[in-house]
Structure formats: C-alpha cells, structure tokens
Amino acid sequence: MKARKYLLALIPLFGMVLLLAGCGSATEKDSKTTLAISASDVIASMDSSINTDVIGGQNITNTMDGLYRFDGNKLQPAMATKIVKPTNNGLTYTFPLRHAKWSNGKPVRAQDFVYAWRRTVDPKTASQYAYIYEGIKNAADISAGKKPVNSLGVKALDDHTLQVTLDDPIPFFNKLVANAVFFPLYKPSVEKAGKQYGLNSDGMVFNGPFKLVNWHVSDNSWTEVKNKSYWNADKVKLNKVEFYVTKDPNTGLNLYDANRINRLEKISGDTARQVSSYDTFSIDKEASTFYIEPNQKKYAFFRNKKIRQAISYSINRDQLNNNVLGKTTGFTTSVVPSGMSNNPETNVDFTKEPEIESVKKYSSYNPKLAKKLWKEGIKETGQKNLNFTLLGDDTDSAKKQNEYIQGQMEKNLPGLNLTLSNVPFKSRLTKSTNGDFDMVVTAWNADYPDPYSFLQIFMSNNAQNNSKWSNKEFDDLVKKSATTDANDEMKRWDDLLQADKILTEEQGVIPLYQYYQANLTRKNVKNYVVSPNGMYNIVTAYKK
Q1: What is the C-alpha separation between 152 and 166, in angstroms, rounded?
Q2: Domain 68-191, what architecture?
C-alpha cells in the first residue's frame, strides 16, 4: 500500500520528555502480552479506501482482515477459507468466506467486501488507490466515470460467497487482494462517520486481530487491544500493542535503552552506526525504493532526457548510503527492488537479469558525464533560470539526505541553485499529489511481490505518477504484462524487463536506493517479521 508512499521520520526534541512520560514503566513493557513499538510518524488515515502510506497500512492490517494475509513470505487464507484457483480461463475467482464477526458482534458478510470495493473505485471517494483495481471487470471505466459503480465485477452470491470477475487474467491476483485496500468495510459505521471516517477510532468496527481504541488523527501514540471477536483470536498471543511516534533518533534510542519500548524501527544515519554493534540490531530488506521525481508537467526542462540523466549521474549513491544513511540502504539500478521476484524459469532475481544490468550505468556516479549532459540539456531547452526547490520530509534523516543531494547536484551541475523544502510527511504527500513541487524525494513500497507493483505507477495516466513522465512504449509493455501476455509467464517477464529498461535508461524518475529497515528488537519478541508487501503480521507475533 503502498500500500504505499514511504517515509523516514523524526520528532521535535521538545516532545521527548512528554513521550518518555507517556510510555509507562519498564515493567509494563516487560509484560508478555504487551508489545511496545516505535512508529516513524502519525497515522494519517485508517480508511482503507483513502490511506496511501505504510503507517496507515500497517495499522489497518493490524485491525482488519481481508481475503488473505501474509505470514512472512507465505500467503495464507484469512476471511477466505482457502487459496482460490481461478476458473473461466483465469477470469473468475469464487471465494468461500468463513463465518466471522465484526468487533461489534455483527456478522462479516460478502456484501461488506462488495460495499468496500465499490466505494474505493467510486470517483466520489477520490481514492488514489482506485487504479489498483484495474483489471477487475469495469473498474477502469467506473473510476473514469464512464460506467456505474454497481457494474464492478464483484458480487455476493450469498452471505459467505464472494465472486470476482476480471477483464483479463491477473497472474498475481491472489497476492494483490492481500493488500489493505481490498479489505471489507462495515457500511453503517462508514456512512455514519461520513467524511470523518478513519480519522478517529470512535464508531469504527474491526474484523482483524486487534481494535484501535481512543485514537484521533495526529495522535503521537495509540493503542490496539486484542479483538475477542476475531475469527482467529485463539492464535493471537498479545493482548495489547502500543505505538509511540519517535521522530528523533535519540528519543527512540533512549526509550529502547530504558526498556520502555520493545522494538525501535527505521533507524538510520549516525544512530544506525551507533547501535550496529547491539546484539539486538537487525536489518529487514524492504521491498521499497526511494527516488527523485522531477516535475515534468510544471517544467519542460525536466522533460529533456539528458537533464534527468545528468541529475542521476551527479549523485554518489555509495557515499549517500555509507556516510549519510548509516549503511541502511542498498544500491539499486531501477525502481524495482531486489529480492522480490525471480525469473519463472531460471530463478534469477529481476534486478540481476542482463536487461537490467545493461542499464546499470545510468544510476552510477559519473560527475564528468553529468556536467556534459547537463550543459547539452540546457542548450537544447534554452533554460536560463536554474533555481529549483527539492521537496522532502522534515525528519532528521530526510533532511540530512536531501542536504547531501543538494550539495552533490550543485557541485556537479553548473549553474544549478537548489533550495530545500522540508515539510511533514502528510504535507509532502499532499504537495506531491497536487503537483505542487519542482523536484521531490519520495518512495514506493510493494503492494504485492511483483515488478508490476512498481512499474505500473509510472504509466502515463496513473494517479501515483506525480512526475508525469510519459512513454508510450513503456505504457504498452506494462499493459501487455497485465493483459495480453498475462498467461505466458516468460513473455510477461520479458515485457516487464523491457519496460524497466526503458524507465531506467530514460531516468523517468531517478532511483536513489533500496530501503533496508534497521531495527532494535528485544530478544524475547518472536515472529514479528516483514512480508513481501512490507507489512508485519501481528497475528503470530508474541513475547517469550
């Protein structure tokens, strides 16, 4: 969901005393049934139709259940009673649903999925994730306002049977619907709250392992308690999960060292170097990449390929990782991260294929070539005013990162004057979505473990394509991989490779690195592991 846009985070130092006071005693955090975790920022929304970021996605995953749930790398039935195989030449999925209850005791029905899915694709909802439904019958036309919402290819055959019809086969459909945007919604709760739904926990009902309680949007801490109505409650070992926003790395480390939290997440920079010797230090290789989007709609200057390539060549990514981010990232040639998807025949990682290796140079550090291409691009575009702003998050790590990028670009791109604008995560998302930026450092986290999850967002008409880069050949290849070649694994794989090659050579967006999440986790915390869609499965987590 990403899920979703990602972030690095840091809190004002003056909040440190209040936060420490609010975390309770060390004894409480040693309870075997309470897990205390840091959070990199606040929850922006608990509305599964509206949320676009990892923080919201994680907490929706903690409190809601869809058709399936990842446990580590394994896809398991959740509200569906089994992993369904499609019929009708891959176009029809019929899901038998288990008998389950909402947290208010009402039954979870197939109609709750129908309501939620129709709501997401309804143009009135203005969901940025409506595009992810494309491939389900009529979804694209509904989102475009060309067909009625009730024509979506989803229906309840009865209270416990959900049927989905596709326009074309989707090879990764079962993995896709594990994403939070496909979770059911309890209609009375949503309609009663109206536009306020998902902004506070009052009136919300949940069908997942935990319930969010006494929460309002922008709270710097929140609590989730075990949902006794959950169909799989017997497997849930924790009674309570507490989250504390720790934007300042020193604050987070103090909380961890004082045993006030059991897990400190998303450590970077100097703090990561400082704690790398801890025996509780670990790194989760995330299916997430950070990149720069130059606004090609706002400036014709950025539509020049040489300019974008020059920006890429001007940045020393190894130095960025080693000296700025504390070795918590990995080199990436493209926006598709490594360790996520392999060749169906040879089992070679997508990023290690010859097609991707052949364009690796476009993401390398080459200041001499950067200057040459930059000067040529300036001449070709006639650009004279080289004053731009780089938008980013207001966290400590993001600020240091963007200061480094600023220094590299101004050093290696003659005449460029780059100003930094560091704003809260939510504001950065809003500005990016509205096109209110010159250049922005952003990221994408896998919604499901397939290269398509990353490549499709750079198609010309995708709502997440904030840079507005456009390439018809790229669009055609990505579309073919999801439609006409969907049943031919190797042809589809080649489509995706060729599309990625075009994006990388063009530097449609400028890849920076693959994100590796550095954490400190108490040795008694077990089974808290990341899944291929970037979410942690809280069902099987426990404390020994």
Answers
A1: 9
A2: Alpha-Beta Complex (3.90)
